[in-house]
Amino acid sequence: MPSESPLDNDALLRQHGLQVTAQRLAVLRAVSDRSHSTADDIDKIVRAEIGAISRQAVYDALAVLTEKGLLRRIQPAGSPARYENRVGDNHHHIVCRNCGSMSDVDCAVGDAPCLTAADDLGYEIDEAEVIYWGHCPECAAAT
Asked: 70 and 10 in one domain?
């Protein structure tokens, strides 16, 4: 997914009631350019782009942008949290057990939340998080 233009990201932040800051814009660009990156990876990208920024400022920006629904946080078992800007739909993820690469997978069947719980226990379900595990084509070919 290509990077949003600076004006698009400015407007996006304002639409969600957030102040436009260089840090937030850099984090949005980093996640847009490298979806499914860890916070540490995003921190390195942002530092390379804007220089003087603390790790805590990057983590704070990730938290605020996730809370406001501009980013999505995914944390597969045994993996650090990763971030993406594909929000607003109910897609899933596939993770390679060997190299850890992650890709988006569209909903398997039906409407969101894709999977209907056998018993919702009275909850109003609005999202199902499904993670498929396997081996990516490169790792599968190497074995």
From this structure: yes
